[in-house]
Amino acid sequence: KQSWAFNPDLPKQAFDQEKARKLLDDAGWKPGADGVREKDGKRLEFLNSTTAGNHVREQAQQLLQQTWGDIGAKMSIKNLPPAVMWGDYWNLSQFDTTMVGIDFMVGPDPDATQYFASTGIVAKGGAGNNTTQYANPDVDKLLAEGAATVDVEKRRAAYMKMQELTRKDLPFLPIFQYAMVQGVKGKLEGFTPNVNVQENCWNASTWFWAS
DSSP E strands: which ranges in 53-176? Predict the structure, then answer.
């Protein structure tokens, strides 16, 4: 929300298991003998992975596994050591689903081409971080438009529309956000927290020590 390109009018996510069950029922996914839904001989099940030993994510996985099970979907867990998780398994999209942490911006610029453009799919020869292999030609066009100009209003219009499309397609779903608490000495000026980055030294070039 701190970004100047944030779209505040996107539909809000809602936790509604009854609606989820109805959507699955209407789509023809019926509970099997063990409670796991099936359709045309295929079970509704998937694998989820994250970094082994990351207790916050592992606890979140347990909750997700339970809530998926409540609507008739089986989520199995296969966590991996960092050296394996962040190798080809992640970079070449060899996973089924994952729970990871993502920051879209190095600084205040909202360009997220490396995450959403089809040119960022490494598994298909691209260069970027689009490990979900998300591909939407309209999103590609809007990202290119936003990156091709320095006009803030034109960029904002492109990114606002891009967010509408990615919110509809939902290549990934935010689950939770870490609360980062940091302290600074009283004489440090220019320090500005920013939820869009992992470290709050994103604007360190503007810091100064008050006399």
Answer: 74-77, 97-98
Pair 165, 171: CB distance under 8 Å: no
- Residue 209 bridge partners (DSSP): 188
Helix (H, G, I), strand (E, B) or coil at 169: helix
Q: 15-45: b or e for each residue (b if 16 or more CB lie within 10 Å)?
A: eeeeebbeebeeeebeeeeeebbbeeeeebe
Could you give the CA distance from residue 133 to residue 199 in angstroms, rounded to a whole number? 27
Looking at residue 193, its pLDDT comes to 83
Mean pLDDT of 23-40: 97
pTM of the model: 0.82
Q: For the chain, what percent of residues have pLDDT higher than 90?
A: 78
Domain ranges of the chain: 1-102, 106-171
DSSP state of 9: T
Q: Which residues contact 80 (CB under 8 A, 6 or more apart)?
A: 49, 51, 52, 89
Q: Which fold has domain 1-102?
A: Dipeptide-binding Protein; domain 3 (3.10.105)
Beta strands in 63-130 (DSSP E): 74-77, 97-98
In 10 A of CB 142, how many CB atoms?
Answer: 23
